[in-house]
């Protein structure tokens, strides 16, 4: 069976395009209903805050993402929005916009879905469990690399697993790609998140699920990453933004691999953010992705980045076991990376040895 893939309905690209948000939201369904803006709190009190088209009666809520998105957090923000809208005599907001990196965009996607689907977001971690379309949702990246702006998932840490809500309804109705918005990101964060894109491409291009669709997007995204991180000292934010988008398109029709599976374990147990977790894991994967890891180290060198080491040394046994469980639970990732008989190649012991190197 081929997947009939749902894509972002509309996107706008270009420096300064964020200033068209008001027009865009006026054209969305239910333009009179309150708009909810979920905004990374790094932008509180900045010029960007003043440019957000929040009218009197709309909700502008800053979101802290020191911790990556959790299901309980999503449910709480959903309840807050419902309360806010009810206090104005309404039922649902007209739109939910997420302005931030992958974390805030994922929170916006998940909140939009949980406004129209009963229960907790933890009930929907998995594949195609969402029944009802969410509230119209808009993604505005302020960091590039995750591909969250284009993907059909929102990655959440729940009571017992880190797993996305994967569904056609998760995909944004609108994204605004304004390269000016990623310009202020700190060098390290920009690199870690940018490498998420590079690693998406390596894992997609080296995976057994590869096809021409994924290759076309993956190769282009990888070239853009090289341009941004290896070949020039200038900041090519336009290219980085497109790399993220294309990298996301590449994995949409294939899958990620070993690095992402291990990185999920790192972030579940150590709370490490996705971008840096991927970098830490990828740096130990020369046996699986030799050329990709060489290139990654070159880019790290070129950008003057050094990674934390010894994160797993001395870890208690039960935490190590949990980390291995989280990683091995992600069966499609292993199958993409190592083929259908992956279980023979990737034992608990092998996963443990890889973690012990981090
Ligand atoms: P992030 O959103 O977690 O943000 C990292 C840090 O950068 C935060 O402190 C944030 O406040 C700050 N930040 C964001 N934009 C900034 C800017 N312009 N200037 C200064 N600081 C800024 O980072 P990320 O790497 O974009 O996202 C990681 C998250 O994305 C994880 O939760 C991961 O699970 C998720 N993810 C989702 C998908 C998907 O398809 N949905 C794919 C990959 C990763
Ligand atoms: Zn990723």
From TrEMBL:
Protein keywords: Oxidoreductase
Keyword Aminoacyl-tRNA synthetase applies: no
Domain (Fe-containing alcohol dehydrogenase-like C-terminal) ranges: 192-283
Family annotation (CDD domains): Fe-ADH_KdnB-like
GO MF annotations in UniProt: alcohol dehydrogenase (NAD+) activity; metal ion binding
EC assignment: 1.1.3.48
Domain of life assignment: Bacteria
Domain Alcohol dehydrogenase iron-type/glycerol dehydrogenase GldA, chain residue ranges per copy: 10-179
PANTHER family hit by this protein: 3-DEOXY-ALPHA-D-MANNO-OCTULOSONATE 8-OXIDASE, ALCOHOL DEHYDROGENASE
Record-given protein name: 3-deoxy-alpha-D-manno-octulosonate 8-oxidase
Organism from which the protein derives: uncultured Desulfobacteraceae bacterium
Organism phylogeny: Bacteria, Pseudomonadati, Thermodesulfobacteriota, Desulfobacteria, Desulfobacterales
Name of the gene: kdnB
